[in-house]
Amino acid sequence: MRTRVARLYGERDLRVETEELPPLGPGEVLLRMAAAGICGSDLHYYQDGGFGPVRVREPIIAGHEAAGHVEAVAKGVDTIAPGMLVAVNPSQPCGQCHYCSIGRPIHCLSMRFMGSAMRLPHEQGLFRDRIIVPAIQCHPVAEGITAAEAACAEPLAVCLHASAQAGDLRGANVLVCGAGPIGLLTIAAVRHAGAADIVATDLSDAALSRAPAMGATTTLNVVTNPDGLAPWQVDKGRFDVVFDCSAAGPALRSAFAAVKPRGTIVQVGVTGDITIPLNALVGKEIVWRGSQRFDREFAEAVALISSRTINVRPIISHAFPLESAVEAFEQAGDRSIACKVQLTFDGID
Length: 349
Prior knowledge:
- This protein has helices spanning 40-48, 98-101, 147-150, 153-165, 181-192, 205-208, 211-214, 230-233, 249-258, 278-283, 297-306, 325-332; strands at residues 2-10, 13-20, 28-37, 50-51, 54-55, 60-61, 65-73, 85-88, 91-92, 112-113, 130-134, 138-140, 173-177, 197-202, 218-221, 239-244, 259-267, 287-290, 316-321, 340-344.
- The chain is α/β, with parallel strands linked by helices and 349 residues long.
């Protein structure tokens, strides 16, 4: 059986190719892919050849946000049945290392994460018509949920994990810096967690226009209104928690100015080395906490999407067939109109 794949060879060198699928092995499932989202990391691979220390050093099939229909299952697989629509969990901890043994698989020393260039050889991803994966990575979604929605389970899981890093958010005043897909889903996650007021900032009105539908109470374009956060920066800051989804120096400095003494900043966005306001960190006794990926939150994300308790549809802006993968990536890089851009798959026989 053959499948098409979108394979990246280097900066803006993305090719749709065809390759053979291996035979179905024990405990495995054959998926006919339906939708897969282009993540910020995928876009960095395409535009820049990587981000920070993570570089594309060999050809890679990217993609780690995806859903597909079960086409066949190996003998003995009884949790998944042909015809089901499933979200694919791209995270594959080893289950044996020190961190897995103490219940922290998110920090697995041998983590395999689909579509990641972090390790060599790279872990191949989900931008393909068909793929064989372990059944344990497949999470069925409810009837009536579209593949496009199901493919948002992975980024929502990232944001649910980030929300959990802040502790109890009931009644909290929250700032979310950056209203891209992760920022918007973070807004939804903290709204679900009980936050009272949620202010969203970004450089783009197009991005901010989606924030109210995700739960933001106030939106602020920091280009057209550079002093817009000033009311929240008085008296050493007014926000209980800030989620920085931008990884931009100016946004981070504003976050340190706007968070309360002993408040929390959850760092969701990543970049290279940046300068931080160390005096504010120390003087206000701020907790600055990183947040990476997810673990149990993937199943939670699937459940929330399945019930539409969190509605991810407002973030989905474009869909392109696999053969138009280059056009899809170019569109994803235009934040003036794009939010979550997805690839769709027709399959080949």
